[in-house]
């Protein structure tokens, strides 16, 4: 079984920053991609950012220039640095790891509010 341990969520004021971490452990083979998705009330779950094995990254237009995804392959850990947070960033953020199987984290709440 695969376990994804997420951390870094919480309450932050508009304009503030947070960093999310997701560490994968257990019976994991080669990892092709690691990414972050989010789902806000009344909205579909959407891709926020993804990084693949070669280092290429993709971002949702809504977070470009504000969020940065990175990973530490030796630790099987992916990070999401979130800067200049806006109220519309409020959502449950989910880590996803893609290898021979797809694994999802339990989700961590990020709330951006004054």
Describe the 3D structure.
Helices cover 0% and strands 55% of the residues. It is mostly beta strands. The strands form two sheets. Strands 2, 4, 5, 6, 9, 10 and 11 form a seven-stranded mixed β-sheet that branches. The radius of gyration is 13 Å and the shape is globular. The mean pLDDT is 95.
Question: Key features?
Answer:
114 residues, mainly beta, seven-stranded mixed beta sheet, four-stranded antiparallel beta sheet
Overall form: globular
User: What proportion of the residues form beta strands (DSSP E)?
Assistant: over 45%
How many DSSP E strands? 11
Instruction: Enumerate how many helices there are, as a single number.
Output: 0
Low-pLDDT ranges: none
Oligomer: single chain
Query: What is the average of the pLDDT values?
Result: 95
Largest sheet: 7 strands, mixed
Radius of gyration: 13 Å
Helix percentage: under 10%
Helix/strand class: mainly beta
Secondary-structure element order, as H and E? EEEEEEEEEEE
Query: What's the N-to-C terminus distance?
Result: 40 Å
């Amino acid at each position: 079984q695969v376990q994804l341990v997420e951390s870094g969520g919480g309450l932050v004021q508009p304009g503030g920053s947070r960093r999310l971490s997701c560490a994968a452990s257990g019976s994991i083979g080669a990892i092709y991609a690691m990414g972050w998705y989010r789902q806000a009330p009344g909205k579909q779950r959407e891709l926020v950012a993804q990084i693949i094995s070669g280092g290429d990254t993709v971002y949702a237009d809504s977070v470009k220039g504000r969020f940065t995804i990175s990973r530490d392959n030796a630790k099987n850990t992916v990070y999401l640095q979130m800067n200049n947070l806006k109220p519309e960033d409020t959502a449950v953020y989910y880590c996803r790891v893609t290898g021979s199987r797809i694994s999802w984290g339990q989700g961590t709440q990020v709330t951006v509010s004054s």
